[in-house]
Automatic annotation (TrEMBL), chains A, B:
A Gene Ontology molecular function term of the record: oxygen carrier activity
Pfam families cross-referenced by the UniProt entry: Bac_globin
Gene3D superfamilies: Globins
Full protein name: Two-on-two hemoglobin-3
PANTHER family attached to this UniProt entry: TWO-ON-TWO HEMOGLOBIN-3
Top-level taxon of origin: Eukaryota
Originating organism: Forsythia ovata
SUPFAM superfamilies, sorted: Globin-like (SSF46458)
Keywords carried by this UniProt record: Heme, Iron, Metal-binding, Oxygen transport, Transport
Segments crossing the lipid bilayer: none
CDD domains from the UniProt entry: TrHb2_AtGlb3-like_O
Protein family according to the UniProt entry: Belongs to the truncated hemoglobin family. Group II subfamily.
Amino acid sequence: MQSLQEKASEWSGVNPNDAFAIDETNLYQKLGLQTFINLSTNFYNRVYDDEEEWFRSIFANSKKEDAIQNQYEFFVQRMGGPPLYSQRRGHPALIARHRPFPVTRQAAERWLHHMQQALESSTDIDSDSKTKMLNFFRHTAFFLVAGDELKNQKQSIACKHAASKPAAV
Amino acid sequence: MQSLQEKASEWSGVNPNDAFAIDETNLYQKLGLQTFINLSTNFYNRVYDDEEEWFRSIFANSKKEDAIQNQYEFFVQRMGGPPLYSQRRGHPALIARHRPFPVTRQAAERWLHHMQQALESSTDIDSDSKTKMLNFFRHTAFFLVAGDELKNQKQSIACKHAASKPAAV
């Protein structure tokens, strides 16, 4: 059985070394907090204004300012800064926290489309950092698609079991 | 509704500031790779020899050497060292990766019992680092108990939905 990592690499086209090249330099020290706040604000402005209703609706139950804070605090923590996210919300637990959302391949590509646009429009981020971040985001997006499929597997097993009970009684 | 972090804090008795005090110093630089390998080896020797069969059986389908490597690579990565875990396996995704296991409060306490013994028997770790690590482990163990309950909630909703379908047909 393919691991989460293998699926993420195959589906994203980004191998783990490229995905985690974000750890070669401390991007938080290089870019600073405000750059991450700006990036997440730019990204979520695009998401909440998306003309594609199916994608926009995924975020309908979340306040934009919360989505922005959750995202930049995670990025800061993961890219060498203080553990802002964990101090406030605990472990990132990326797959579990995405359980409520349908993280399909199509949704991953749409997320990446907006993030690529946000990165391209950012004047605070050098091109090497942009490449590293985009590889990390692309691999992570498809890691979450793989995580989403796990969820479906588990549910169907649980429901088979539940369905078999009444028949046995 | 209580968040994962709030549940972890309440159930473990460890507040987030104490849990994430591991980030105040770079424990990997302070302790070194071999200390983490020794700790995880010591811990899993205890787990795989546990006289409590219900706890030992949770690990029955995992090879001890894999369990040791997964654990110390995660600890190294989380405590300031190179991202060994993510390069090999992807994001920690702690809750999702514990889905196959029954992470009850009782299991969390048993895990912590063995980890406390392993830490106490370690001569490579100073007492301040031991305190920080134990607070982190205790908070994390109950964070996973909270994550385990999420899994059950989701299943019951999914199964209710599945069960209602045949009735409607």
